[in-house]
Amino acid sequence: MISYLETEFETISQNFQQLKVLSPIIYNAAEMCIEAFRNGNKVLFCGNGGSAADSQHLAAELVCKYKKERTALNAIALVTNTSVLTAAANDLAFDYIFERQVEALGKPGDVLFAISTSGKSINVIRAVERAKELGLKTIAMTGSTGGSVKYKADITIQTPSDITNNIQEMHIAIGHLICDIIEKEMFK
What we know:
It is a single chain. Helix 3 (50-63) packs parallel to helix 7 (164-186) and helix 4 crosses helix 5 (97-105). Helix 3 links the parallel strand 1 and strand 2 (75-77). It is globular, with a radius of gyration of 16 Å. It has a single domain (2-186), classed as Rossmann fold (3-Layer(aba) Sandwich). Helices cover 54% and strands 12% of the residues. The protein has a five-stranded parallel beta sheet, with helices on both faces. It is an alpha/beta fold. The chain has helices at residues 2-18, 23-38, 50-63, 82-91, 97-105, 122-133, 164-186; strands spanning 43-46, 75-77, 111-115, 137-142, 155-158.
């Protein structure tokens, strides 16, 4: 079992080393969010399962704080309102749970941050499509293939793995780096 753990740590380490090539894309995503905040707009997050947890986590970092004591930033995780989620799933279909909220809460200049390890989650893709129709900017975080969401989003951050847990490990690290850049740039 020790050798298994050592192999897993090696895989995780290699994945994170490969993220360096994504630095310009990650920085562009942070800049997109900064522009939105500076213009009085907000960042919306969506995703399913572990990506839903990441959505909540990253929205909390922006609203409360990441590292710096500062004013709150306007960020919303679209995964948290159970009444809206269950009503949309029941009355429309699960595919519409995020799209409907983007329609209700999004405005031109906002950013939708769509997190999907496969890049194939229909409800996430529909949210990105609706966001674009409404004039929002869009960022997708996916695994190595990017799925079909990579063709829809303005910026796609494709992590170098197709293994769900490894993708999620990288997603939260990337999200933290984006929060860090936002704080450093906006609250010098």
